[in-house]
Every structure is written in structure tokens, then in C-alpha cells.
Amino acid sequence: MRTTHLDMDALRSFVTGVDAGSFARAADRLGRSTSAVSAQLKKLEEQTGTSLVRKAGRGLTLTDSGESLLSYARRLLELNDEAVSAVRGVELEGWIRLGLQEDFGETLLPRVLGRFARAHPKVRIEGRIARNAELLEKVASGQLDLALAWDMDPAQTTGQRIASLPLCWLGAADAEPMWRADQGEPLPLAALEAPCLLRTIACEQLDRHGLSWRIAFVSPSLGGLWAATAAGLGIALRTTMGKPASVRPLDAPAYGLPALPSLGLALHRADKDIGSSGEQLNAIIVQTLRETLPADWLLP
């Protein structure tokens, strides 16, 4: 039987289209025309001998075959990019200083570091998990080369905005919160130690809607915050990134909680040359986020 070799460019367009939510947006990201991306999708369907997408209302959705191919396509592209990066950057040495939010420590960091280390084994990475203000301060002063941080004001950010993550109220997964707005009791808030951007947002939102609150639990770490929330000691405000199964988003209107804004995510870089190693790590972080986050969170 003749071996079929899947076209890597077509696979990239396919994955980008799924991640972007449409192949028109994929064309913008890839710097190609929509017709060119559509032609690549058709080519991929001819190579696989099956339909990969079908119409669903005004949009497209994956067929069963498309869902199966998507998983393989991500792995093929990751291995392809890793191989190219390794061959081109085999001589890269030195060290890079990376900072990020604790929310991404378990979900993003292992994957990013694994991909980077396999491609550039001679480069050392110094990682730092810290709060938003500290990350921004250290990248501005040159103590960090790259920092993945929350971004509240798109007009003021100096970083590359990658996504907009919905904020939500969180409670224990296996129990109903012992608070509702109509009970007249202050909302028990579980929060990180101040200063904390999300703690500030929670307090401001509750004040703005005339809801009384009290700090019921304070933790220096996100792990402690998740544990307290899971135990029912308080309601937390966070995104769902890194959320354990013991915690669930709450239906805000059902409990009389205010609706919440989304929170931007940006990759900041020091105001100096971060070198080829830094550029490679920057690209891997962005690519991994685009593969990991839901398509409707990503920014064009």
C-alpha cells in the first residue's frame, strides 16, 4: 500500500483554523488568503480520504475524523517544530530568566520547559513564580527576560497580548456555597495575601454592586486558596486556569453575585536584547498558549 505523507503546511492551517475558531481568522494569523487556507484544508481531506469539517449554522465544526486528526496534527507539528528548532539552534547556550503567574505553573510551565529543553539542552532557564506587580517590576528592571502576566489595560500594556480570560466566582465542587445575596450576610471571600490584583478586583466588584463582604481566608499561595475554597471556607475570584477538580465556577446570577470582566494575558519582555534563546522561548510560550487555551479566549 502506498504511504500517504500528510502536508505539514496543510496540517498547520487545519490546527490554526480550529484554534482560531474559523479558517478566515486562521488566514489572518498565517498571513495567507482565505482561499489558500481553504485549498489546504481540501488537500488534507483528499490526503486522508475523509471529510474533516462540516457546516454547523454559520460556522464549521469538526467531524469525528477531524477530531481524531486534530490530536495527531498537534503532535506532528510539535515534533516538526521541535526538530527544526533543535537543528537550527543546536549551538544555543546561556540562560534565560522567565517569570509567570502561579496559575500557569502546573498547566503551562512543564510543557513549555520540556519543549524548550529538548530543542536547546545547553540553555538554562531560571524560573520565578510571582504576583503580577512583582513580575512587571522585575521585567521592567531587566531582572527577568520574559514574564507572563495579567493585563488589565490594553491601552497601557507594553507586552504582547495573547488572550482574554473570563473571570469567575468559584466555590466547592461538592457542596453549595453557604451564602446568597438575599441572606443579608457578608460574603466570605477567600483570597491571596495583598497586594493581589484579583483580590482587588473582587473587592471592587462587590463594593460596586453594594454587596457586603469579609475576608474569610487568606493564603500566601494559590494551592492554599484552592484548598480553602474546596473546603467551603469562602468564595474565590479567579480564572479557571489551573483550577483543581475540587473547585467549580458558580452561576453568578443564581447567587446574586456580580458579573465579572475578562482579564487580559500578556507576554512581557525586558527592554533589551534577549538573544536567540529568549526569542525561541518567547515563540514556544506563545505557541503553547495558543494550543492550550480555548479558542474563544485567544486574541487575533
TrEMBL record:
Signal sequence: where? none
Gene3D superfamilies under this entry? Periplasmic binding protein-like II (3.40.190.10), Winged helix-like DNA-binding domain superfamily/Winged helix DNA-binding domain (1.10.10.10)
Please provide the record's keywords in A-Z order: DNA-binding, Transcription, Transcription regulation
Q: What is this protein called?
A: LysR family transcriptional regulator
Q: Which species does this protein come from?
A: Luteibacter yeojuensis
The UniProt entry, under InterPro entries, shows:
LTTR (IPR050176), LysR_HTH_N (IPR000847), LysR_subst-bd (IPR005119), WH-like_DNA-bd_sf (IPR036388), WH_DNA-bd_sf (IPR036390)
Family statement: Belongs to the LysR transcriptional regulatory family.
Q: A Gene Ontology molecular-function term?
A: DNA-binding transcription factor activity
What superkingdom heads the lineage?
Bacteria
The chain positions of domain HTH lysR-type read 6-63
